[in-house]
Write a structure and sequence with these properties.
Layout: E1 2-6, H1 10-22, E2 26-30, H2 33-42, E3 47-51, H3 59-68, E4 76-80, H4 85-93, E5 98-101, H5 106-122, E6 128-131, E7 134-137, E8 142-145, E9 148-150, H6 154-166, E10 170-172, H7 173-181, H8 189-202, E11 211-214, E12 218-221
Parallel strand pairs: 1-2, 1-3, 3-4, 4-5
Antiparallel strand pairs: 6-7, 7-8, 8-9, 10-12, 11-12
Helix pairs in contact: 6-8
Length: 226
């Protein structure tokens, strides 16, 4: 996944670059509107993080040009210090998919990035689910983590697909049981066994654990390194 970060504050720009690179994204940076427009016109991005107040060309103009002139549907998350409802409306009217007010936690930005990418991928032909460095190609039914192939049984693939689609939300135990067995529910420990097998494949070999048990409710797939 390739992200363009457009931000004129060099400290914030460097921080976002390092953070997103650590999370497995390929990141390009621009500290002004003209450079951003050049990069957008010459390269393809999966998502753009766009500050509104920029030298040269502001973020609202860039986003509007992206939608109405270039006719690109690349998802955009707006960054701004303005939190008035009128400012948010301007951002959405220009074509932004989400809006984040400074200062913000990097963990919140990551959740919003993953949510926007997941939402926009459902509305397009893109068939790749992604949570942190875990990817699931729905066309080939192949799973990779940190670029390494992960081999899963059909039941594990079903569970993983649902957990990734709902990430970072919690999926109820009953929902996962229905997914695997329909109305013919097995012993209550069977789901635990399948979750154990899935965790051994996607988490055990890696330092950053993604699959979380929410006791009494179900399971959740999210980046817990924050």
């Amino acid at each position: 996944m390739k992200i363009l970060v457009v931000e004129d504050n060099k400290d914030i720009l460097a921080n976002l670059h390092d953070f997103l690179t650590l999370k497995g994204y390929v990141v390009d940076c621009a500290d002004n509107g003209l450079t951003a427009l050049h990069l957008i016109s010459s390269q393809s991005y999966d998502l753009i993080i766009l500050d509104i107040m920029l030298p040269g060309v502001d973020g609202l103009t860039i986003c509007d040009s992206l939608r109405n002139n270039a006719h690109l549907d690349t998802p955009v998350i707006m960054l701004t210090a303005k939190d008035e409802i009128e400012d948010k409306l301007k951002g959405f009217e220009s074509g932004a998919d989400d809006y984040l007010v400074k200062p913000f936690d990097l963990s919140e930005l990551l959740v919003r990035i993953e949510a926007v990418l997941r939402r926009t991928s459902k509305n397009s032909q893109q068939k790749i689910l992604k949570v942190a460095d875990l990817e699931f190609n729905l066309d080939t039914m192949s799973v990779t983590r940190a670029g390494k192939q992960v081999t899963l049984k059909p039941a594990s693939l079903k569970l993983l697909k649902k957990l990734m689609q709902e990430s970072p939300g919690v999926v109820k135990r009953e929902t996962l049981e229905q997914l695997l067995w329909g109305d013919d529910l097995p012993d209550k420990d069977n789901l635990k066994a399948h979750i154990y097998l899935l965790r051994n494949k996607i988490d055990k070999p890696f330092e950053n654990k993604l699959l979380k048990t929410v006791h009494g409710i179900g399971y959740q797939l999210l980046d817990q390194s924050q």
